[in-house]
Amino acid sequence: MKIKKKIPLIDQHDKNYMYGGKFGGNFIPETLKKPIDDLTKLFAKLRKDKKFLKDRDYYFKNYVGSPTPFIKLENLTDYLGGAQIYAKVVSEANGGAHKIYNATVHCLIAKRAGKKFIIGDTGAGYAGKMLSMAAKKFGLKCKIFMGSKDIKRQRPNVEAIKQNGAEIVPVSTGSQTLVDAVSECMRYWVSNCDTTHMCVGSTVGPNIFIKICAWSTAQISRELVLQIKEEFGKIPRKLKLFNCVGGGSSAMGFWNEFMDTDAEFYGIEAGGPKKSKLHAAPLTNGSKIGILHGAAQYVVQDKEGQIGTTESISAGLDYPGISPLHCFLKDTKRAKYSSASDEEALEAYQLVSRLENISPSLEPSHAFAKAIKIAPKLKPTNIIIVNSCGDSIKDKDIIKSKLGSYIR
Ligand SMILES: Cc1ncc(COP(=O)(O)O)c(C=O)c1O
């Protein structure tokens, strides 16, 4: 299995939409075949449509607030000694996280498809908040599916979704988290696809949703390439790019434009609480391939092959599956995956928020935890960049309950 250098990663699938012959595909009910085919054809056309690309770039700049800052974390670098640490502060995008890129593109597609309704899933609440924001902007009626456990633990984003005029559909089946929200959202779409466009909040699901999401978030690395060239004159050798991995959209966006360079990719999954056997790290913990949400991927599962229970302090990473694109990057050894525990993520959140003027949410705090471990072992000629893809404000209640106080 090999990655081809000159072909966009999202297009490196076979005729069955499988990456490396093993991951992805469209494992969908018959009723979704036509809507998925239609969306696949429409997106193939829009990707080459000058007017659509012009609109996308216009809204990325004038609505999302692109480019987001690229800053040096001087205090953290001095404190740790070793590699120089930078952050791409994607949490400065409109709404506070990378999910706004995917949400904006989906709304533009829905308008082109003549749909008046849009639905989406959410875990941490950012995908839902962003979709509700973009739906309001583009005049679409919006429903957000969210697990009941996540509704309780991500209150600020729940409030934002409501204020944007979207309906929240609480999902109280299964683990009441993201995995159930995605399932419920897809189920709703089966019966309403004639009038309604569906946005999947990460690089998961049937192939077309993986493609649209990765294509949209790739803007992050397009910006970063320019910012790096301005800072260093060129892309430094063996640049180290750290990103948390839930479904995998933020990491795909952060790495996309570096695919054919010698940049090293570090994906960090949710290891869960130190004392628990549960986690949300299928790539790190050797999970087997299974089918989840219409695609083959490594997935946390029990001995009978049923989707397994996960646990993480971070709602955004608390998902048993992982994008087929990341499975492909793992098997081709293009990216390295490991996990950070709840406790390590909390410590990293504290250290970064105390030393710097950014305050990463619990998802990117997993990536910071790993960078903080590795940086002191490296020489200052090494450059580490962490994608700070979400703001901690949404995690205020959880952080207060665990640490007694909240710093930002
Ligand atoms: C801030 C933030 N980072 C990361 C994630 C994980 O998702 P993904 O791996 O698709 O970026 C989420 C998901 O909700 C999130 O809100």
CATH architecture call of the domain at 65-96 and 218-403: 3-Layer(aba) Sandwich
H-E order = EEHHEHEHEHEHHEHEHHEHEEEHEHHEH
Tally of separate helices = 15
CATH class descriptor of the domain at 65-96 and 218-403: Alpha Beta
What share of the residues lie within helices?
Answer: 40-55%
Bound molecules: pyridoxal-5'-phosphate
Radius of gyration (CA) equals 19 Å
- Major beta-sheet overview: 6 strands, mixed
Named CATH topology of the domain at 65-96 and 218-403: Rossmann fold
Low-confidence stretches: none
Give the strand order, joined by hyphens, for the main sheet. 3-4-14-9-10-13
Q: How far apart lie the N and C ends?
A: 44 Å
User: What is the percentage of strand-forming residues?
Assistant: 15-25%
Shape: globular
Per DSSP E runs of 2 or more residues, the count of β-strands stands at 14
How confident is the prediction overall: mean pLDDT? 97
> Class by helix and strand content?
alpha/beta
